[in-house]
Q: What sequence folds into this?
């Protein structure tokens, strides 16, 4: 989200909370969820004092024992004080609080960015431990997948992403991401000389891209993926896949992208990307 | 109209019996709401390994339900891993003790499990909060106001309502519209729900369990707590084994197998 969008959202949320009439219509539980969201917005738009005020309200209501409030508390310390202090706070929470655990991992990630490789291992180890204990957490799997992607371990990343798909099978962006990783993985395999496997991965990647556009009809990322993937399949020296089929698929992707570009039915950056891909994959 | 002389109620009956009962009922309801909130113990955090034990089952179920969304090789490797891990007791909370002794444990006493005990205590507390004030109120009314006629409904009713509106009054020929004190108590007991909703907001626990019939609100405060689909004292290993069997039986039908054709048809490329 761009800063201006964020500020606009913050202002709208602020107006909602302070309006009284609109907020009063909500159930109490819902109202506190809105408070929680507003807390995040306030922190993101650096309204620290306001965030602290909301935090006080929430911890007055739910007590400091609440795991959800603890996460907010940790975030507040993180934003207003140092990471080390936040880490210290989180370490005092019981280990069963998944939310606090995730915060710790997030902090580990931030510190790992600049730190030596051991820190990065610690970040990934913690993530693996988290998904081992809470395998129904799609967020954690996706985070793990991104860690593996950064490390270039595409096979592991695909495993984690498949796990995400098991949990949220209709997430078109994850489907497209699986496709993208498949494309990358396939080119790595190609460069290592295992052509047959590379083509398998390529076909699979195109399938996932197609799935993403099946779920979301004008998803530019998905359609570009279909176009790129099918073109690469056709570029294989001796493709085992059904050439005619992929020619049609390629044609279809090109048509759809052209349609999106013509009707300007997407965000500006997506349109630019679509135009570029169309030009490069004539 | 028969010239039967109408009953005349003393206005002090209204001022000193009708309204006090109503007021006391409302106040007791509010009190009950706050007492219930105070008595509610915070749900116990399970330890990490118990979460893992439970989540493993969920994972198996997810794989069976959504396996069609991932490629066959991916599905098969998960299937193999999960069935083996389940059978070896990999996800069990007390894996060590499971591995050390093989003889099956006797089914544990549900009362011995701390989780089950907690839940039972909660239910007991909830019931006490309901029963104690109601007994007191009812005996109060029975002691002081038994046999009182408190008011006259402004609309006629059939004779069947007599038992509802005139309990505690033994006069057979009295018009059904007259309401006795104990009946007024019951009317308040069942009818104050919406008043509490206004005063305390919805989802309050003032009405206790009395609104079960028809209000559709369920028992406030009760339930929750324990693991869904898992009674305390159940042998977890057996659950894991049956999940392993379920996964073994699950067949894989890849949803993306013919996706090219599907989309080509949809966009009329054929």
A:
């Amino acid at each position: 989200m761009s800063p201006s969008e964020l500020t606009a959202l913050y202002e709208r949320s602020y107006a909602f909370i302070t309006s009284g009439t609109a907020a009063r219509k909500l159930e109490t539980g819902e109202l506190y969820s809105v408070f929680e969201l507003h807390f995040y917005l306030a922190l993101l738009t650096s309204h620290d004092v306001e965030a602290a005020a909301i935090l006080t309200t929430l911890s007055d209501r739910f007590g400091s024992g609440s795991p959800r409030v603890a996460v907010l508390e940790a975030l507040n310390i993180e934003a207003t004080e140092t990471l080390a202090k936040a880490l210290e706070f989180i370490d005092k929470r019981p280990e069963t609080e998944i939310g606090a655990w995730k915060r710790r991992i997030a902090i580990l990630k931030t510190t790992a960015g600049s730190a030596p490789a051991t820190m990065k291992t610690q970040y990934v180890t913690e993530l693996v431990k988290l998904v081992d204990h809470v395998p129904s957490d799609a967020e954690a799997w996706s985070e793990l997948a991104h860690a593996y992607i950064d490390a270039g371990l595409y096979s592991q990343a695909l495993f984690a992403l498949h796990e995400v798909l098991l949990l949220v099978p209709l997430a078109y962006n994850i489907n497209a991401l699986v496709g993208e990783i498949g494309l990358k993985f396939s080119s790595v395999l190609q460069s290592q000389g295992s052509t047959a496997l590379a083509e398998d991965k390529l076909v699979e990647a195109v399938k996932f891209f197609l799935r993403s556009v099946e779920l979301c009809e004008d998803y530019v990322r998905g359609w570009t993926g279909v176009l790129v993937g099918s073109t690469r399949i056709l570029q294989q020296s001796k493709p085992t896949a059904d050439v005619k089929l992929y020619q049609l698929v390629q044609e279809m992707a090109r048509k759809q992208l052209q349609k999106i570009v013509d009707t300007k039915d997407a965000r500006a950056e997506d349109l630019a990307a679509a135009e570029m891909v169309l030009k490069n994959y004539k | 109209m028969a010239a039967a002389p109408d009953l005349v109620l003393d206005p002090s009956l209204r001022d000193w019996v009708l309204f006090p009962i109503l007021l006391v009922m409302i106040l007791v309801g509010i009190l009950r709401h706050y007492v219930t909130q105070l008595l509610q113990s915070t749900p116990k955090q399970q330890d990490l390994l118990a979460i893992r034990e439970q989540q493993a089952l969920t994972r198996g179920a997810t794989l069976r339900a959504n396996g069609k969304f991932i490629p066959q090789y991916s599905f098969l490797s998960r299937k193999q891993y999960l069935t083996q891990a389940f059978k070896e007791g990999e996800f069990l909370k007390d894996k060590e003790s499971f591995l050390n002794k093989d003889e099956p444990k006797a089914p544990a006493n549900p009362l011995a499990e701390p989780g089950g005990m907690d839940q039972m205590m909660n239910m007991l507390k909830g019931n006490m909060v309901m029963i104690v004030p109601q007994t007191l109120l009812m005996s109060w009314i029975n002691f002081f106001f038994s046999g009182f006629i408190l008011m006259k409904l402004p609309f006629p009713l059939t004779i069947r309502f007599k038992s509802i509106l005139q309990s505690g009054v033994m006069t057979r020929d009295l018009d059904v519209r007259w309401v006795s004190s104990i009946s007024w108590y019951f009317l308040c007991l069942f009818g104050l729900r919406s008043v509490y909703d206004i005063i305390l907001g919805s989802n309050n626990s003032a009405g206790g369990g009395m609104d079960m019939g028809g209000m559709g609100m369920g028992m406030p405060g009760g339930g929750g707590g324990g693991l869904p689909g898992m009674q305390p004292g159940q042998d977890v290993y057996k659950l894991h084994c049956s999940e392993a069997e379920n996964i073994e039986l699950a067949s894989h039908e890849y949803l993306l197998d013919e996706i090219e054709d599907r989309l080509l048809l949809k966009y009329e490329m054929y």
About this structure: Residues 11-43+115-223 of chain B form one domain.
